[in-house]
Amino acid sequence: MSKRIAVLYGGISAEREVSLSSGRQVIAALREAGFDVQPIEVGADLGALIAALHPKPEVVFNALHGRFGEDGTIQGVLDWLHIPYTHSGMRASALAMDKVAARAAFIAAGLPVALGRVVSLSELAQADPIARPYVVKPVNEGSSVGVEILRHGDNRRAAIAGAWRYNGAALVEEYIPGRELTVGVLGDRPLAVTEIVASHGFYDYESKYAAGGSRHDVPARVHPETYERAMQTALAAHRALGCRGASRADFRYDDTAGSPGRLVLLEVNTQPGLTATSLLPEQAAHLGMSFAALCAWMVENAACRA
To answer: Which CATH number is correct for 4-87, 3.30.450.40, 3.40.50.20, 2.60.40.10, 3.40.30.10?
Structure first.
């Protein structure tokens, strides 16, 4: 008898459309792998979601992204219901989603991060909090939602602070020139290093999800020492946060002054995208793992953390 899997997708975050796309592809892949799949499109009604999870499935495949989907919220609900689920647990999910808390964990583990600090919106509106160029980002959003780069001569600082809608503060970090790298991790195994080349210079939301928004080079053409360092740093970051299942670590790689250059860890995504343009499935395929096999691996490695 095939295992009954509930797939949660959609949600109420700014990344709802991405989650819907991920969920549809996961549903098809799990059915291809032979599972009995129950799609559950998640909305604002938590009671309706809990009702849809009765009778309890054997595993929940969490295909939600963004706030309430990857910040520990739904993970806590599933722990309460004692239902095994894919990806990381409540604590690791909350840590990874909170960029300030994640930075602290990375620093404690001796991992390389960009110089930066949290600033109030009034401080940002009044003056540059650090030397330009710098990056302004929400503390608790994913998929580059709300990220802004302020370069020399850019007069948008006060306008950005005035229009900010992501809580009452922002994380400001030095801008690292160079290249965008990412490494997927499955369990205790880093997969590969991908270089992401955005079509218009910055790997923003559109570059991540629009057709033709970026090019992914896997394996990345970087110095061998950098390649191995990125693989090991991704695994170390996965462990530092207490992640389970799949994660993806994002880096900036500054080789503008020559190789091997400077590698900087930006963040860990505990719910990597599973869309047609997503990076983790590409890396798995590079190693000979089909998308259906990748999704099945996530199901077989699901756990309940209660």
So the answer is: 3.40.50.20
